[in-house]
Amino acid sequence: HTVYISRDYSSLAVGSNDVAKAVEKEASSRNIPLKIVRTGSYGLYWLEPVVEVELGGNKRVAYGPVEVEQVQSLFDSGFLEGLDHPLYLGNIQEHPYLKNQKRLIFERIGRNDPLSLDSYVECGGFIGLRKAIEWGQSKVIDEVYKSGLRGRGGAAFPTGIKWKTTWQATSSQKFIVCNADEGDSGTFSDRMVMEGDPFLLIEGMMIAGFAVGADKGYIYLRSEYPLAYEILNEAIFICKSAGLLGKRIFGSSFSFDLEVFLGAGAYVCGEETALLDSLEGKRGMVRPRPPLPAVKGLWGKPTVINNVITLSSVPWILSHGAEAYASLGVNRSKGTLPVQLSGNLQYPGLVEIPFGISLKELIYGFGGGTRSGRPLKAIQIGGPLGPYLPDSLLDIPLDYEELSKIKGIVGHGGIVAFDDSANLAHMAHYAMEFCAEESCGKCTPCRIGSTRGMELIEKIIMGKGSRRELELLFDLCDTMLNASLCGLGGMTPFPVLSALRYFPEDFGYSKAEVL
Ligand code: SF4
Q: What is the structure's pLDDT at 514?
């Protein structure tokens, strides 16, 4: 018998290690030979720990959420034969939450051992890289451009254009840097890929390296992801042992080497120029642009910096073709986005879906509405510096341009839901506090403005806010928006202004006063 149990970080947090141990112990006490494969998570987090049993003929059935105390009863009821039990979920691939997705990046995650190179190759791994080497640099860049892929870290810049800039820069040394400093609240898709399918990211980085002429890559990983660190390093070691990294591959003259660099917990290091400073061993401070990192990046050399999801989208694009990718999505938002649902929702988890789906469908269709059963008050989309949107705006489609029309952002695809017990004035205060805490200190609007913003909102919350405080707050937000050097200071007003606009009563103001 083979049993699959996730060991990604969120599953571990709800006890998947203990469940795996309990399953092993129970099997051995019953003299049942059993193989446990630890996988990534499917991302149906309210069901974790999920225990999946292989029944032969590639058929699997799942049970969940399993607690240690229920393991004995699973054995008693014959779960190894796929028999019924109160935790029976059936074939998890048929679960509407999974079935209604379009998984390109996440197609393998949850099914197999993330560190089995054989199973990665069996499931289509390295087809993209082989094609890239066969096609040559300019065709690869053209294909990525045609796919319409845009940076999934938040900036949404066309990946093909970024790659082309670095490709065209003349230098004896170029770099690929993967931005894995996933620090937005409510985001976890990068982590899931790194823990659940590390070879995919490695392949994406190798393709990028080949395309632009870089032979060295770094994964800049946030220090709060110890398991991803372990798995990535193990995956790199496996690739090196198999002659895929550090050596010429597939009969070509291309070779690529890769290492993981651990950050030190600063949110601003997710900003690409601060990330480069940190990678060079300096304190992470934002660099003014130009020059662009694509031309003058790491140690002054041309550098492609892409997010985990961006790079992990590339193998699929090359193996299936740009046209197939671009046929998904809407307008200039092509392909799929792994949306991360969290907060006060019945069904939090990972939903990879083509652009164009409405936010309503995501929140109510997939997310199942609030977990508390109270009315939904707001969602925050795009991380801690994304705006708060009221329920009435949720008909808007997931589309970079459509969202920007209502001053919304897609960001890294994280959506956090709040019910009507949330106070948005407190959330606005939190945004300023977050900015004050994480500011790199280089420019005044952000460094000083965030603290003044906290003080103003505190005054307003205490009921001492007059018309003057409101005007000052608007003024301050305007300065931060227009005069900050990077997005941290420049976007902090988004949650503040949206909270004021849609929920003025939480601040003690009337609608007429804030408009
Ligand atoms: Fe640093 Fe804030 Fe200015 Fe960005 S906006 S450069 S984080 S001080």
A: 87
